[in-house]
Write a structure and sequence with these properties.
Oligomer: homodimer
Shape of chain A: globular
Largest sheet of chain A: 8 strands, parallel, barrel
Number of strands of chain A: 8
Structural class of chain A: alpha/beta
Largest interface: A-B, 60 and 60 residues
C-alpha cells in the first residue's frame, strides 16, 4: 500500500437512493430544498433522481419536476439514474438540467434477475444502447455493478466476472465504474485485493468508484482499505439514508458525513463543508420526522478546540 | 505497514462498561447468565465488573455477588476494574474468582479531573500502590489511558504525554496498556502513527491494547489501522453497550460482534464463535428491552453460502 490520495471525490446519492427507499413519498418541494442545500456544501457530484417507472417507484415519480426546480451552482455535476432506454428518453427531455447518467446491473445472475427481471446479458444489451445514446448526447456515464463484493443469493462473486462486466460497460461508453457492496458483504482485505485487480483489468482511463454499505458496520474500514489501494472516488448518502436496508432496521448506505469526517480528519481533502452537510442531514431528519443513522450528525464533528460542547 | 496479525485477542468489556452505563440497574441474575453465555463464545478475556463505590455507581453494587455466581470455563481470563486501593481491597476478598485487574486514568488533566477529581499525578500515585499490591497478589494488570487520541476539554493530547503515562503504568507493574478513544476522536492516520510511537516508547514486553469508540462511525476503520501497524489486542462491548455515549443517542463502544465479523471475514482469527456471540447480544436486548446498536446482531453475520435468508 502506498500513500493515501490527497483528495477524493464523493458523489452524494441520498436524493436518489435515499428518497427512493422512504416508505412515504417525500414532497417535491422538500426534495428540492434538500438538494439545493446539499449543492451548497461543497459536494461536486449529486445523484438527484432516477427515471424509473413511476408506477414501480412512485417515490421518484417527480423526477422531471425535481430536475427542473433545483438551483445548484455551476460546478456541481448532477447525475440521474437511468434503468433503460425509456428512462433515458424521459431524462433527455431535460438534457440541459443534468450532466451525467448512471446505469446499473448486478454481477450475479440471480440478483440481477431479482432486481430487474433480466439476465446479465439482457441487461448489458439494453445498457449498451443507453450508454451509446447518452454519450452521443454529451453525457458523462457511470456504470454501477451491484453485488460486486458478494451476493446474498450466490455467495462469492468471482472478481474476474465483475471485471468482465466492467469491461463491457467501459467498452459501451462508461467512463466511470461504480462497484457496489449491495448487502454489506465486503471486508477490507477483499477490498485491497479487488480494486487493484479491477484497475488492472480496466486500465487507467476509467474512474473506479467504491460504493459501500454499512450493513455490518464496516463501510468506513472499507473506505480506508480502498484509499490504501488508491481509490479516490466514493458514493455515499447523507443521513445514512437508503441503500435498501435488509433486514428492517439494518443499515444501508454509509453516511456521507461519516465518510467526510473520517477523510478530513485524516487529511484527505473532500472539498466538503462538514457542518453545512450536517445541516442538510438535520433538514432531512425534520422532513422525515425520525432520527437518522448518521454518526457524525448525531455526535457532531470532531472538535479539536477543546471546547467540550457536551459533557464528558 | 506489514502483514496483518494472524490472530488477535479481544477483551469483552460489556459486563462492566455496558452494564455500568445502563440507566436501570440490571438484575444480578441476568448479569450472571449474560456473562456465562459470553464465556462460552470463545471469548478468552472478559471484564466482568468493577469495584467502584456502590453509592456512586449503583449499577455495579453487586460486583462481589456477580463474581461469586458466574461459572466460566477455566481458559477465560476474568478481569475487574479497580479505581483505587479501597476497590482493590474489596476485589481481593474474591481473589480466587478472577485473574486480572484494570486500572485507569486519563491522558489529559481536565478529563482526569472531571472523571475522578484528581490530577494525573495524584492518580498515578494511587495507581502505583494498586498495581504493586495487585502484582504481589499474583494478578495480571492492565493500565487503561482514557483520552489517548484526543480530549473533549483539551483537544490534542500529545503522543509523548500519553507515552509518559504509559511508561509510569508499566514501571508500576502494568503488563498491558489500553489506549482509550474515549469520545471517538481517533482517526486511522493518527492510529497508524501513534501505536508505533507508543510501541517504541514502551518496548516489546508490554501488550498494547486498542479500545475504540464508534462515536463517529470510525471504530472499525481504526481497528483496521491498528491491525496494519501490528496491534493484536482489542477491547469492545457486545451489543454496542456502554462507552459513555455523549451526546444522548450517540454510539460509545464498538460492538464486539462487529469487530469479530470484520476480523474473521479478513481471515484474522479471534477464536470467537460469532453466532454464539449474537445469541448473547440477543439475550442482552431482551433483558434491556430495547434495540441495540450492533450492526451484525441486526443484519446477521455475512453468509457466503448464498442462502439469502432475507430478501434482496
Amino acid at each position: 500500500m502506498g500513500e493515501l490520495p490527497q483528495r477524493v471525490k464523493i458523489r452524494e446519492v441520498g436524493p436518489r437512493d435515499g428518497f427512493q427507499n422512504e416508505p412515504e413519498t417525500i414532497d417535491t418541494f422538500d426534495k428540492v430544498r434538500l438538494i439545493d442545500q446539499l449543492a451548497r456544501t461543497g459536494l461536486r457530484r449529486i445523484e438527484v433522481t432516477s427515471f424509473v417507472r413511476p408506477d414501480v417507484i412512485p417515490q421518484l415519480a417527480d423526477a422531471a419536476a425535481v430536475l427542473e426546480a433545483i438551483e445548484v451552482p455551476d460546478d456541481v455535476a448532477l447525475s440521474v439514474l437511468v434503468p433503460n432506454e425509456r428512462g433515458l428518453d424521459r431524462a433527455l427531455e431535460h438534457r440541459d438540467r443534468f450532466h451525467e447518467i448512471s446505469v446499473f446491473l448486478s454481477a450475479s445472475e440471480s440478483h440481477n434477475r431479482a432486481n430487474v427481471n433480466r439476465s446479465i446479458e439482457e441487461s448489458l444489451t439494453g445498457l449498451r444502447l443507453v450508454l451509446g445514446r447518452a454519450r452521443d448526447a454529451g453525457l458523462r456515464c457511470e456504470g454501477v455493478i451491484s453485488t460486486s463484493f458478494g451476493c446474498p443469493y450466490e455467495g462469492v462473486v468471482p472478481a474476474e466476472r465483475v471485471a468482465e462486466i466492467a469491461r463491457e460497460l467501459r467498452d459501451a461508453g462508461a467512463q466511470e465504474i461504480g462497484f457496489g457492496d449491495t448487502t454489506g458483504m465486503a471486508n477490507p482485505r477483499q477490498v485491497r485485493e479487488l480494486f487493484p485487480a479491477w484497475r488492472e483489468a480496466l486500465g487507467d482511463d476509467v474512474e473506479l468508484t467504491a460504493h459501500f454499505h454499512n450493513t455490518r458496520g464496516q463501510a468506513l474500514a472499507n473506505v480506508l482499505a480502498a484509499l490504501d489501494v488508491g481509490v479516490a472516488s466514493f458514493e455515499s448518502s447523507f443521513g445514512e439514508l437508503g441503500g435498501c436496508p435488509v433486514p428492517a432496521g439494518a443499515t444501508g448506505n454509509v453516511a456521507t458525513e461519516d465518510v467526510v469526517s473520517m477523510l478530513e480528519e485524516m487529511g484527505v481533502r473532500t472539498g466538503i463543508d462538514l457542518p453545512a452537510l450536517v445541516v442538510a442531514t438535520g433538514m432531512a431528519r425534520d422532513v422525515l420526522g425520525r432520527p437518522l443513522g448518521s454518526h457524525v450528525a448525531t455526535a457532531g464533528p470532531v472538535d479539536w478546540s477543546g471546547a467540550a460542547p457536551t459533557s464528558r
